[in-house]
Amino acid sequence: MKRAFSLLFLLVVAFTVCAAQVAKSGQKFLWDENQVQSAKHTLASETKISLADRAWLKDRLAQQYKGDPDPAKRAAETRVQLVDLNGDGVPEVVAQAVGNFLCSPTGNCAFWIFQKMPSGYRLILEKGAAQGFTIQPNRTNSYSDVVLNMHGSATEQGLYLYQFKQDRYQRTACYDASWTYLDENDEIQELNKPRITPCKR
Q: Would residue 23 count as lying in a domain?
């Protein structure tokens, strides 16, 4: 009898865990265009980063601008914002490129997130082009999920969900946000809030 009860208990626990996982994976993707942020300060002006750390980051970013006429200057002008993504009290450095070399005419620029380590910083997220970012309320492996948005046109954006897995941020989903749609008469209608659908590509 005890053995049967134990087996029944284990089955109930297993079912509950599986149901929770299914519910979690089926969560609707939520994104608020009003919450999109961009990096606020330049690396050179961010006083909350020590001089030694700024020098380290400047050297690291200058490598990204290789081919630019003045990579050191461009690295110093890189926009940064400090965000504590894992709640350990030590903020990560969100960095976004400036200038024509690593930015498109539509305002999408190379994007990085660096994490402070005893020996400097390590790169935990890199995307070739993004316009802004949002920090999500959900966490994966104790790190906040991050959504990068990429400008496509005046009425469309690409949204890329990044979650922390295997010691770095990895892209786990892609969505299209559109502020227009075709009605039954094939006429373009505008939306107050974007229609968000999984990427077709």
A: no
Query: Which residues are CB-contacts of 178 (< 8 A; sequence separation ≥ 6)?
Result: 155, 156, 191, 194, 195, 197
CB 132 within 8 A of CB 144: no
For residues 54 and 46, what is the distance between their CA atoms, to the nearest angstrom? 8
How far is the C-alpha of 200 from the C-alpha of 82, rounded, in Å? 33
Q: Is residue 187 part of a domain?
A: yes
Q: Which two tokens stand for residue 42?
A: 């330049």
Domain range for 82 = 30-198
Q: Among 140, 131, 184, which Cα is nearest to 163's?
A: 140
Closest CA to 96 of 128, 52, 59: 128
* 33-91 per-position pLDDT tens digit: 778 888 889 999 999 999 999 999 999 999 999 989 999 999 999 999 999 999 999 99
**pTM of the model as a whole:** 0.80
Tell which residue, 61, 36, 64, has the closest CA to residue 160.
Answer: 36
